[in-house]
Every structure is written in C-alpha cells, then in structure tokens.
Queue: 3 jobs
Job 1
Amino acid sequence: MSGILLRYLAFFGPDKPPADLSFTPGLNVICGASDTGKSFIAEAIDFMLGQKDPVRDIPERAGYDRVRLTIESAGWPPLTLDRSVEGGDFRAYEELLTDGSPQTEAKTLKRKHSATRQDTLSYVLLERIRLISKVLRKNAAGETRSLSFRDMARLCVVTEDEILGRGSPLLSV
C-alpha cells in the first residue's frame, strides 16, 4: 500500500490574503489554546477529503469562499484540490498549487463515491493508495460493498476527542 501526504491547506477569498497552513512529511501535531482553530483545521481537512457537510461558518472564515488542499503521493504527480466552502464537487489539478494560478487544466471530481465511476475524489485517492476495487464486508452473511475513501478518511486526521477517548481511532465503530 502506498500513502498520501497532506502538504498544504488554505482558504481563499476575493480581496483576502490566503489563510494557509503547510504540513511536513511525518506526523504533524496542531496544538494551541482553546478556541484558536485546531478543530476547525481538522474539520476543513475532513471536508477536503470528501465530507459532505459544508465547512463550519466561524467569524474568521468570513470573506473566504473556497478551500484548497494539496496532496502528494509517491509515484504520482501532486494533486491540488479546490472546493467551495459550501460543498459540492472538486476541481483537481495535477500540480503543487499553493497561491498562484493553475498551470494545468482542472478536472472535476465528484464528491460522492461510486464503485462504477473513475471521476470521483474517492477513486482518485484510493488509486493513489492502491486500494481500488477493494470491498468491505457489511455483515456476518458475507454481503459486501465497495470501499470508499470516506472509510479511510478518519485515519488521516485524528481529533482531540478521538485521542482522549478510551478506544482506538483505528477500530471500527
């Protein structure tokens, strides 16, 4: 299995400077005092990994209308994802894009996973970690369903609540 590295997260808006955060390879820990945005960053990453609900509207988000997440994977070109703060589909660029204009053509990726489509965020991310066409067992009767990247997303970001909880964030609920 191959991995993905989250490299850059930013909020953009007209006439606003980007509000951005860079990540380094390995474990990245975001810490700070209460009400400084730690949970909001985790929610924004989850949103950019396919969460359906819009980004929470906090006062600091005023004037920002889109979110960008850049991902790197060994053997693949960088992947930059842009998405409206209101949700919907993604615009994907195969380049490391932080603050400038894209040099490559955007590809639209659907938010919702489908086992029969290749134009979804789930397909693109599962392909990068070599888990395309994998299935999950739904029940003891042996029924299965296709693996979605949303099944894996909670392994990319571990929240404070999960750290403080008694169970492992890796175990199924």
Job 2
Amino acid sequence: TKHRDPFHFISKAEFDQAVSYLRQRIPSMKDYEVVAGLQHLAALIGDGHTFLDTSGLYGRFPLEGFWFGNEFRVIRAAPEYREALGARIVSIGSVSIGEVQKRIQQFVPQAENQWYVLNSSAKHLMSVEPLAALGVLPGLGSADFTFEDDSGRRFKLRIRPVPAGAKSGEVAIEPVPLPF
C-alpha cells in the first residue's frame, strides 16, 4: 500500500494469484517454507527495496561464494572446509549449481541490475532453509557439496550448517588466497 508503483514488474492480478496460491498451501507447509513463500512474494515486486528481511533467521553454510561468469566459486570458507577455497561449486546435493541458481531466482528481485541479482543469489545459495524449501536439500541438516578445482579434480565435502542467529564472528571464515 505504500509502494510508489508495486505493479511495474508484475500485474496486480498475477501478484494476487501468487498470494492466493501461497495462502492455500500454508496449512501443509513448514514454517521456513512459509517464510520462503513470503520472500518470493516480495521478490515478485521486482525491486531491491521490497524484500523480506531474513537476516539471522536462516541457518547458513560456512562458505561464501561469488559468481565469476557462469562459475560459482568459493571465495571464503570455514577452516575445516579450506579445501574448497577457490574451487567451483558443481552441485549442492544432487542438484547442479545451474539448476540451484535457476530455482533461487524466485527470491531475488528480477527487475534489478545484473550485479544485484548475482550478489543476492550468492547469499541465498548458502542459506539452508531456502534450499530446503526449493527441494534442493531434503531437510535442514548437513549437505553434500560437489566441487571442482582448477585442475579438473572433483571432490565432495559434507558441509554442516551454522545455526540461525549465530553471529558472523562466531564462525571463522577464511578468504581465498590471491595468487601472485
């Protein structure tokens, strides 16, 4: 009601239909699935100023990734996952990173610029509950990530999530070393 032009990216009828669809499903949904549904509704508005703030609400994997073209690479990792630093994430669980990226887009306002979309999706890709809500993960626990290093070697690591609400300083995440 206070947005200057909420239906510049999606029609009011399409938005209302999405609201109705979510409302019908709520009784059979888990709490985090409802929150993810609300995130999707906010993203439908299409701008980065309209969002559901979930900071501190979701568990997260202690990795940080960045998009380098079509490759999603680990730029920071908790010490126990140091092997992943610099590697490309190939899949999360049995779902390819390309498919995960495609699914996660429903939480990202698509009328924003390319860099906003890429940065936002990178953050969502490390959030446990959205991945579970999208069917990427079977539940809220640890997940198998498949990586590929620059020599083409593929390897898997089982990554334990950091609980929701954990302060960022409580989990040390190391940056990828820069080559000289």
Job 3
Amino acid sequence: SLTEIQKKAIPVINRRKNCILVAPTGSGKTEAAVIPIFSLLKESNLPSKSIRAIYVTPLRALNNDVFRRIIDYANKMGLEVQIRHGDTTQKARRRLLSDPPDILITTPESLGVLLTNQKLLELLKTLEWIIVDEVHELISNERGTHLSLSLERLENISSKPVVRIGLSATISNVDEAARFVSGIDRVCAVLV
C-alpha cells in the first residue's frame, strides 16, 4: 500500500506540478517521485535517444544508491537509467552521448559540467522532469547556488515545460525550499 507522502505526491506529480516532498527517511519519497514520472515517460511515446528526466543528488554514493533503488522500476517500464559523476569512466561518458538514457542520475557539480557540452545540450531539448534529492543539503550553500543556475539553464534548453520535484527529510523553512526547487516566480506545492 502507498505511504502517506506517496498518496499526497502521486496525484500532484501526475498533473505535472512542481512540488517538494518533505517526509522522514524511509517514507518512500523517491518512489513517490519516480514511479509516476516513469509511467508518464512510458506513456509519452517520444522517441528515445534523449534525456527526459534528471535526478540530482548531492553525493556520488547517493547516486549509486538511487540507481540501485530505481533501476528495476525503469527496466519494467522499458526505460534506461545512467549515472554521471566525477568518477564515471570515459567509456560510460562516451556512452552517455552515443546512447543517452531516458533518466540521468548526477550530482550538482557534474550537472554543471554537462551543461558545457554542446552535444549533450542537444540531448536535453526534450527534458521534462528534474528531481532534486536531499534539498536540505543544498539549499543554503554554494553548491545549491550553482545548482539553481543549472536548473534555470535546463529550463531554457528544453523545448518542453520542465517539472521540478524536490525531496527532503527535514527542512526548517519549507517556503524557501519550495522557491529553491521551483525557482522564484514559479508555483511549487509543498507536500508534508
């Protein structure tokens, strides 16, 4: 059965609304975000060979953990997931460009680097979804500032409306976190 945060989040995400999910660790926030997104990606019938969702985590170790958690969901939907961070091999980096995934898991720093690659920018023109995990780790530091700029760049690159979803276990100011996730002038639902 669905957890409380999943019951609240899935209908909002299905309506393609920016939102931040605030719930304790282990409450199913990741699944609340990725399962409806994966379903919508599968239903969209867009041609493959482009990155349609980006999942940002603050740590490489968390990239790998998220990958292990979502790969089965993605495979069942016929979607591909890849990871890109500072330790990604050259072979995997080339594969990202030649055979791009539907979903890319990355760190804020690696995302900034990716946005300097002209070939990759072409692959981001159909981007529809951005998930930012561990918002509380990023909101009030330089890494978060750089991520905010990258998120705005992604908005400008994509030819589609981009939906942003934030995930956080604890956060003191949810309104500030919502603005961080969605950008200053965009509406963001707060789901607690």
